[in-house]
Specification:
Radius of gyration: 36 Å
CATH architecture of one domain: Alpha Horseshoe
Order of helices and strands: HHHHHHHHHHHHHHHHHHHEEEEE
Oligomer: single chain
Structural class: alpha+beta
Shape: elongated
Distance between the termini: 78 Å
Number of strands: 5
Amino acid sequence: MKYLSIIFSVLLTVILLGCQSSEKPKAMEIESKIRSYEKFDLPQLNKFAEQNDAFALRELGTRYISGNGVKKKPEFGFDLIRRAAKDGNAAALNTMGIAYQTGRGAKQDFILAKSYFEKAILAGSSRGHLNLANIYFDGNDNIAEDKLKALYHFEACSLLGKDFCSYILSDLYWKGDGVNKNKELAKDYAQRAINNDYLPAVGLLAAYEFGDGNFEKSYPLAYRVRDWSGDGIGAEIYGLHKYFGYATSQDFVEANYYLTNIELELSTSASVLGDMYANGLGVDQDLKAALRYYKQAKAMGDATANSSIVKLVKSIGEGEAKQKQLKLDLMVGEMQVSCEMAIQDAAIYGAKFPFLSGRPNEADCIEKTNRCAFRWGPGQLKLKNQFGTWYKSSAKCFTHNGSIASLTIDGHKIE
């Protein structure tokens, strides 16, 4: 099956090259004009639209449909696009198809959408091929799914210079989505887009090489797009390189930077971030953050994530126990100091509150010095203060010959 898919792709490419080599310049010109008019401000567009410039009418129409820089008027926008398409403008015909496909500006109608995409293709639109391919790839209630036709239109779109279509074909062949899985073809299509400086495809190829273990090849590709916000996969691969030290110096801080500022595509990245936060590599240790990333890695299909989660949950439990003991230790230390003070007060004031006569109450303790001591029994002092009963804990100092013999906090005796 692998070889059949290669043969089919080669034959399809040969046929399409023969049919469309002369059409590519026209398709590229249409694409260039679309992008140029997208940069025009509203006064410029209105000026050209008044002259019935089809590209201006189309661009103005799309802005009114979406409310981009103008008050949203979908029906008015659709009328402008229809005027632009009246004389067969390829870009406008394609946009008519989008309006019917999405139901934005016109009542949703997949049959009409398909018809307009076909008209756009005949007029030279590469985008028409892309949109028709998408319809056939998934199908709907009105149009049957047809992967073969989808593949044909993706390939036609690619050959007409639409690099996004080469990117899609690359991704489909790598994943085996709707076609037989073929890594070599995936790399070829990515390279086709790269040859036209389509940066997302650079990141895609970096991911392929990294996944195949070709770290020396993947690093320069990832490095090339690491700071380009439009391509997260390049930054992600670069971050993994920095973590593992593949083809570059190991740097956990840089690895964390590049892996935490993007939407992760690879389960390996989520697992790596889990390891970094679990062990404090390049970041402050944060077991809860580590658990979150391990769970993400598991959801993305990482085979090792479950064992990491089990180990981490156990570690978190042990860590919480240590924190509880530390808190108790700190309280013991502070209570010992307070007991020493209470013993002194008892010796000086006969165990009465320094500023009051009789048995002190909690309000007095808080208001005055936050320190109270009174005799609780022979040779004993009971202490109430900021560590005391109004914080749902109590401390008892057991004294012997004027010094602390033992300390009890919340019923736990501390020797």
